[in-house]
Specification:
single chain, 114 residues, mainly alpha, two-stranded parallel sheet, 5 helices
Length: 114
C-alpha cells in the first residue's frame, strides 16, 4: 500500500470521513517530511521513513492516548528531532504519550514524568 492511501485507510477505520482522513493524512505527511514519498509503497521505504509513517498512522485520527514502542528506532538525528517535536506537541495539546526507548537523550526531552 502507498503511504498516502495507507494513512487514509488508517484514519477511515477509526471512523473519520473521507475528506477529513485525506486532509489529516496530507498534514502528517508534510509534518514528517514525507511529501516526496507519499506515492511510494510503505514496504519500499527506508526504516526511518517507515517509522515516520507508523507514527503518522498512530496520529492521523488525533488520539487522546499514544502508546509507542521504540519510536526513535531507525531514525537519523533529524528524524529523532522531528519525532521528539511531534511527541512534545501531542503532549502540549493534551494527549497522553507513553513510550519505551533505549535512547535516554531523546526521551528525556519529551518526558514530563519519568
Amino acid at each position: 500500500m502507498r503511504v498516502h492511501e495507507h494513512l487514509v485507510y488508517l484514519a477511515r477505520i477509526t471512523g473519520m470521513q473521507e475528506a477529513d482522513a485525506r486532509r489529516a493524512a496530507e498534514s502528517w505527511i508534510a509534518r514528517f517530511g514525507l511529501d516526496e514519498r507519499a506515492q511510494d509503497r510503505v514496504e519500499e521505504l527506508s526504516l526511518g521513513n517507515q517509522q515516520r509513517v507508523q507514527l503518522a498512522g498512530a496520529l492521523v485520527h488525533a488520539p487522546d492516548l499514544l502508546v509507542l514502542d521504540e519510536p526513535f528506532s531507525g531514525l537519523d538525528p533529524v528524524g529523532v528531532d522531528v519525532m521528539s517535536s511531534v511527541l512534545s506537541d501531542q503532549v502540549a495539546s493534551g494527549a497522553a504519550v507513553v513510550f519505551s526507548s533505549h535512547l535516554s537523550s531523546s526521551s528525556s526531552g519529551c518526558a514530563t514524568r519519568s
